[in-house]
Each structure stands twice: as structure tokens, then as C-alpha cells.
Amino acid sequence: MIYITGDTHADFNRFKNPILRKLKKEDALIICGDFGFIWDGSPGEKKLLKKIGKLPYNVLFVEGTHENYDLLEEYEVEEWCGGKTRLISGRLRQLMRGQVFEIAEKTVFTFGGGQTDDIYELQEGSNWWQREIPSDEELREGLDNLKEAGNSVDFIVTYEPPAKMQDFLIGGGDRNHINTYLNEIYDNAEYTGWFFGKLHLNKLIPPKYHAVYDGIVVADKTKLKKKKEPKEKKPKEPKVSKKSAKTDKKRGKFDLDDADSKDAVKLEHIFDDGDDGDKSEIPVIPEEKNGARLHKRTKNKQEED
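^ that's the sequence the OP posted. Answer follows.
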């Protein structure tokens, strides 16, 4: 299952929503930007990140315009589910820009980042980072990855809305180049649902566009079956039937290594030439006759030269 929500702004209460109790190990909650828990690097913040990473489902986020990019970029980039991510803690990851992932058996295209509206009131490196704006390389990589996926995915998750959605929802506000870029994907890609944050709205624009804020949307409710690992089969030891064992005894077959067998063959020294020469050993062989057991015993013979 995949659930999607909007800006959390470092508010842990979002994770206390009862609906999230349904999510299991392979499921995911995706946040559409402004995650906000990576901001000051304090011990309390690090403790919260570990707490989120220990939740029983994957918590995934695309970055918005209220992230500390200096701290975020300290985490190493690694591939996960087909795309580039930053592992934050446990099951908590950042989904990087322009990637196509396979999450809970669904394909998801992600594109975080945006442009702050009140940029001139902020200070670079303190409460605003230039790197919130996607680079030309990231824009190209996104289109290339979509093309490789056949321009078809199940879901698209972004921070900014495509230009047409922004115009529809806020009456033709100022567009930025990210809105225009996403509009190209809006027109050319195939998808069953598009989810975006930023606007602080909980609204469905039929049939498949979702502005998400503090609500939680069920994007996919398919429950994945647990994968059972095949058990190794131990080779069966051959069983000897009682009937077969009795037949073997009647035919004079005995186990010489079986110390507990009553029919064990005893060995006797019957030749002794009186010196340190060769000595021969002849077994006493049991026989059965008329139901009574008889023993043939060999007699010692000594030849004189």
C-alpha cells in the first residue's frame, strides 16, 4: 500500500494518524516536500529522525523549500528500488529528483525542490538555500528517466504543481520554470495519479490530481502478500523393513560392526604354529537346522614336517 501526505514541517503528530496503522513492512508513506525534520541538527532532531526510521513502514519524502540542504547533503546517496535516494535512518529516506522507483509494486516518478516565494526576505545558508531550485542536469535526468520508463508510471510525486494545476487552484499566480517543466510532463506522460504539496491545500482535482497538505491520501491500497522463503528439504534415510532384516538373518547375513547383535560373528585363533609366524582367524558361522541352532566348530590340525 502507498499513502501520501503533504508538508509535515517537523510535526511528528502526522505519524500518529490511526490510518497509518494499516501500513506494513513493504508499504510506504510518501511526503510531498517540506519534510522539515532535517533543519538544525540538534540532538532532539536526530532522536526524532531515528524514531521515524523505526516505524513499521517506509517513510519517504521529496524535498521542498523548507529543508536545510547543507545537512541533507551530508547523507550518502545510494540506490534503492531502482532510483537514487539518501538513507536518513532505518526506513526513512529522501527520494531524489527525477527518479523512477518501484515501491510496493507500483512505479513512482519523483521530483522534489521548488522556488521560495519570499526569497528576498531570507538569508542564504540560514533559512534559505539556493539548491532548493533544481539544476538543469536534474531537469534533464528526470525527462531521460521517464523516457526510459516509456513515459508511463503509476504515480507522480512532486513538491511544486504543474503550471496548469497551479493556474486552476490559485487563479494564475506567478509561474516559475519548475511549474513549466512539470507541465511538459503533465502533457506527455501517462500516469494514474499526481500528488503535489506546497499550496497547503487538501483537494482532489478529478480525475487524478491531488493537492495534499495535512491530510493523508490512499494512493494504492493493494495489500502485498508475504513472500515465503522455500524450505530446504533434507534427504530421507532409506528405511529397512523388519521383513527384510529377518530375511537377511536367515540367509546368514550379519553386521560385523553391530556389537549388540546376538548373532555377531566371533573370531577365534585356530592356527598357531608355535612360533611368531602367521596366525589365521576363522569365524564361527551360525547355521539353523530343524529349528535348532548348530555351530560347526573347526578342529585344530597341526602338520608335522
